[in-house]
Design brief:
The chain contains 14 helices and 16 strands. The protein is of the alpha+beta class. The protein has three domains: 126 residues, Jelly Rolls; 143 residues, no CATH class; 146 residues, Heat Shock Protein 90, CATH 3.30.565.10. One of its GO terms (molecular function) is protein histidine kinase activity.
Length: 488
């Protein structure tokens, strides 16, 4: 259906249906003769040929329709596609200005879907104004209840949605602070230890100078120190068992040469990957047993200093990475709508939720990095990833495999968030995106996470979200268009 397709309806024929005809429609069967007479006078009959567009989604809701004969289809716009939601030929079904009876609260009343006649169809039609009047005048108590229900649902959804966002923000902030605390504390500890080691190096250098070390020997010692540090930087990473064995060998080597506190110095050399062959070479090049003890300690201090500086670099790099991920997640410094690489948002969300995911969940990433950028509201999509990942982790009770995949499906990018939890039973699978529907215990969920995700993906991005589930394999699939959604 084209955006510019005109609606061409045949003139409505007033007075065609009698009160007796109207009583055969289930919607009007309980009305009084007087009410049916009013309806027959104010309503009219309209015929639409096969293929004709009756109402268009988004247009002002100006009429209330009841199907008398024929087959119709209701469709919703999803991106550039029309998705059929209902196809029926049941006599008496209704559509159109179904909320015309609500008080004027400034909210525009538009058609929620498009309706097309699939075969020659006939409708009984009442204007929105007349339908609203009859509902308010004939059923005042019901209208008060319906208005209260509609307004109450809207207010409750807004209040609980705001509460959920604040709770989610608090949980993310707590997780981020926990993640930041670890590298910050590590950097503080390394800095304190580094200060002590540098002071010890200064003292050891003074002792070396006071020991009447010949200038050439001191120069050779400095060269040896640089060589050992360079060798440590290039040494392969050892396992815990290999490191322990190396510590024992180094400790015995130093014991044999009466190195002061050799067993305390050995772990520093082992951590740097320096073996006994390296120390033997150092010993032969010094050619001075009385200088070996002080040289071992001085080089040990230098090695430890390098290791501590590496620890500080790693810790501050981790802090910087977390801050960068937080900025990517919130997009506080970015435009609200832009072309994005969806993987950046997925990665930043995983970082923000790392504390909640925990060590019991294995995260598997299967990304198609060749996928192009898509037009999106990144902060809103990050909220979707947060809801889906959080639900997946909760479904697995903190132990299992979280699999995040991205791939192309026709003209859409697909993000799949899968878990190895117990699955979603078939009887409730169709309800998971309904507002306030939740399978979590009371107090643990509002039932709005998936509803919010649905509205962000479908209404905000012209995409689609669905669930496929069986025990041990549940996947939520988010489909997003590569192109900008067509304007309505």
């Amino acid at each position: 259906m084209s955006d510019v397709e005109e609606i061409r309806l045949e003139p409505c024929e007033p007075g065609v249906l009698t009160p007796a005809d109207l009583r055969t429609l289930f919607l009007f069967e309980k009305l009084t003769d007087e009410q049916l007479g009013w309806l027959a006078t104010h309503g009219c009959t309209m015929r639409v040929p096969a293929g004709g567009l009756v109402v268009r989604e988004g247009d002002p809701a100006e009429a209330f329709f009841v199907l008398l004969s024929g087959t119709i289809a209701l469709t919703r716009r999803v991106g550039e596609d029309e998705v059929t939601t209902i196809r029926t030929e049941q006599r008496g079904v209704y559509m159109g200005a179904t909320q015309a009876y609500l008080r004027d609260d400034g909210v525009p009343r538009n058609y929620m879907a498009s309706m097309r006649a699939l075969s020659d169809s006939e409708f009984f039609m009442v204007s929105a104004a007349d339908f609203g009047w009859l509902m308010r005048e004939w059923f005042p108590m019901a209208i008060h209840l319906l208005e209260g229900l509609a307004l109450g649902m809207r207010s409750s959804q807004a209040a609980i949605g705001e509460r959920q966002r604040l709770a989610a923000l608090g949980a993310l902030s707590a997780g981020l602070m926990h993640e930041l605390n670890n590298p910050a504390a590590a950097a503080a500890r390394a800095t304190s230890a580094l200060r002590q080691r540098v002071a010890a190096m200064r003292m050891k250098l003074g002792k070396l100078a006071a020991g009447k070390v010949a200038p050439d020997r001191l120069t050779a010692l400095l060269e040896l120190q640089e060589e050992v540090i360079e060798r440590a930087a290039k040494s392969p990473t050892l396992t815990a068992m290999q490191t322990a064995d190396l510590e024992d060998a180094l400790g015995e080597w130093m014991d044999e040469r009466n190195i002061t506190g050799g067993w305390d110095v050995a772990p520093v050399f082992a951590q740097g990957g320096i073996d006994t062959a390296c120390l033997t070479e150092l010993e032969s090049r010094l050619a001075s047993p009385e200088l070996l003890d002080q040289a071992i300690h001085w080089i040990g201090y230098a090695l430890e200093t390098e290791q501590l500086m590496s620890d500080i670099e790693d810790a501050t790099g981790r802090v910087s990475s977390l801050v960068h991920s937080a900025k990517q997640y919130s997009h506080l410094d970015r435009a609200a709508h832009q072309w994005i690489d969806v993987h950046i948002g997925l990665e930043s969300t995983l970082v923000m939720l790392a504390h909640k995911i925990g060590d019991g969940v294995e995260v598997v990433k299967e990304y198609d990095r060749e996928l192009p950028q898509i037009p999106a509201h990144p902060a809103e999509l990050n909220q979707v990833w947060t809801n889906l990942i959080d639900n997946a982790v909760q479904a697995m009770s903190g132990a299992g495999t979280l699999t995040i995949r991205t791939f192309r499906e026709d003209d859409r990018l697909v993000v799949s968030v899968g878990d190895t939890g117990p699955g979603v039973p078939p009887e409730i699978r169709k309800r998971v995106f309904e507002p306030f529907f939740t399978t979590k215990p009371v107090g643990e969920g509002t039932g709005l996470g998936l509803d919010i995700s649905y509205r962000i993906v479908v209404n905000g991005h012209g995409g689609d979200i669905s669930v496929e589930s069986r025990p041990g394999d549940t996947r939520f699939l988010v489909r997003l268009p590569f192109a900008e959604p067509a304007s309505s």
